[in-house]
Amino acid sequence: MSKTIAIRPVAAPAADAVQLTDEERQPCEVWTRVMGYHRPVASFNIGKQGEHAERRFFAEPAALGRCA
């Protein structure tokens, strides 16, 4: 005997429904992988932070088409 369960999706609040003042906001911590370790970008020295800002990101499927 099997039971059927009805699942009703819960509506998420609209992005414009949430408004924060500057005092309520907090900084977002960005992490990246360097030499096999995950580290926060804020802990990088000034040179490594500059290198991180200059990085180019790519999508693998797009890059694979140019390798032939």
Mean pLDDT: 81
Report the β-strand fraction as a percent range: 5-15%
Helices and strands, in order, run as EEHH
Return residue spans where pLDDT drops below 50 for at least 5 consecutive residues. Answer: none
Terminal-residue CA separation: 55 Å
Based on secondary structure, the structural category is alpha+beta
Describe the structure concisely.
This is Anaerobic ribonucleoside-triphosphate reductase. This protein is of the alpha+beta class and 68 residues long.
What does this structure look like?
This protein has a domain at 29-68. It is 21% helix and 12% strand. The protein has helices spanning 46-54, 60-64, and strands at 31-34, 37-40. Strands 1-2 form a two-stranded antiparallel ribbon. Strand 1 (31-34) and strand 2 (37-40) form a beta hairpin. The radius of gyration is 22 Å and the shape is extended.
Task: Reconstruct the topology from this structure.
Layout: E1 31-34, E2 37-40, H1 46-54, H2 60-64
Antiparallel strand pairs: 1-2
Task: Record keyword descriptors for this entry.
alpha+beta; 21% helix; 68 residues; 2 helices; extended; two-stranded antiparallel ribbon
